Fold:
Amino acid sequence: MALKHARLLEVIDLHASDEERGTSVSSSLLKTDHLQLMQVVLPAGAGLPEHQVAGETTIQCLVGEAKVVTPRRTCQLAVGQLVALPGGEPHAVQAIRDATLLVTVLRDR
Structure:
C-alpha cells in the first residue's frame, strides 16, 4: 500500500495519531520533487544505523531527546533543537529518551 503524503499547502498535524494519519509510527509526511518531510518516532535506546542521504537534511527534536552521530561530531538534541547536515554526510540517530523527530530532506530532481 502506498503511503498517503500531504500535498503542498495542506496542513500537517504533527500531533495526529497514527490512526488519524493512516500510517505507521514513523512516517513520510510530505514528498515533492524537491522536499521530503518525515516524522521518526524512536523509543529510548532505539536508533537508525549509520546511513547517508544525498540532499541537505535537518533533524529537529519535537519530543524527548536524541543524539545524531556523524564522523565529525556528535550532537545531542533536546525538544526544540535541530541540527543541519550537509548532503552525503554519514550519520546515525539514537533516542536517549523516547523521541519524535521531524526530518527534512532537500531532494534533487
Observations:
- Helices lie at 18-21.
- The longest helix spans residues 18-21.
